[in-house]
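Fold this sequence, please.
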Amino acid sequence: MRISYGLALQEGLGQGRVSRKVLEDFSYQLEKAQGRLEDLRARGKVGFMDLPFKDTGPILEMGKKIRRGFQHFVLIGIGGSSLGAETLFHALKGPLYNSNPHRGGPTFHVMDNVDPVKTAEILEETNSAKTCFCVVSKSGSTAESMANFLITLEVLEAAVGRDQARKQVVFITDPEKGALRELAREEGFQALEVPPNVGGRFSVLSAVGLLPAAVLGLDVKALLAGAARALEACKTRSLETNPAWVIAALHYLHHTLEGRSISVMMAYHERLATFADWYRQLWAESLGKEGQGQTPIKAVGAVDQHSQIQLYNDGPKDKIITFLHVEEFAKEVEIPSLYPEKPSLSYLGGHTLGGLLNNELIGTAAALAKNGVPSLVVTIPQVNEEVMGKLFMVYEMATALSGHLYGINPFDQPGVEEGKKLTYGLMGRQGFEDKGKEAREIWKKRKAGEVAL
């Protein structure tokens, strides 16, 4: 894995204020941020850095049991409780996995939103008697996940009975507190834990991501080994060796010196598109506080060259781009040499789709550079478990460091909590009646301006 950042520097762009010297001089700020992060880890306040070294025996054993015993696996969770597992699924199994008769394991579905059509269709597509439902919520109070849990539990009990239903549901939640932990104690539901000092968006290398990975038959040990190797690099104190320093510093400097308030992650591999979704939550929810942070945007090459690049090249200069570049694709397709008499077609002959896609990346990066738009290129040899472990850890470390650079706490989410409280009130949860009233009063104000067809 390599991170190339020459096109994010003044020397590569021919303009701008973020030069190599500015970057190097910023190392002292990165040193301070690194020290604060490591101090929090030493005091047990931050746990994501310890996850690659945790005992995974119970997780792997349960994953093996589910893989052998069920035809379907439904993950019930939202945000950090689902995006990591979805990223692993799409990157390492692919969207056609469920329809592959030779997949060798259960189908995989994610019930994240409370869109009634989506929930109903997943229940229709899966035979409840042959399905394992995995409910992920650290707090045990996430409204969307709890609603889907209650719906699926009723369906499951109707299909297999109360006692058997408890053998087909697994909770991943806080080890001590919350509604799911209480139900596990009171009714015998199986349960794995999320460490108390690991937030949802940093939890992919805990049971939250590892149980689904084990159910899918992925190499969990390689995933964690990649994360551990990345962590060692991210503990060093040099821009030459620490990829998290590079990512955090360049985004922070371009934001504060150049006003680049938008961070675009553009994956030049369909299977990494969901990693950009995972990054989008991590970057937004961790850093968007107290007027700070960048807006993260997902893009997929080459598709979004035809929908977004016009804006990036010719619109406001408020973006920094990260390209995800894969050197070797798991499968390759050669373009045939047909119509040699037609120049608009003949030049493609003899090339491969992978070669075309990577040349599209080069061309896009070059065009952006000509227009003064900075970019980083994250190059990976191929998409596998070890590489995914590295990617997760590098970006978690870069995000945590960025929080300290901005002077905010990257591990809380106060802006999310208020919306949750207002929703609780609207849904009639005891103790939140005033919040429900407040939300309704605000909602009425939308009528102050309205147009209808």
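Residues 50-218 form a domain with the Rossmann fold fold (CATH 3.40.50.10490). Residues 385-406 form the longest helix (22 residues).
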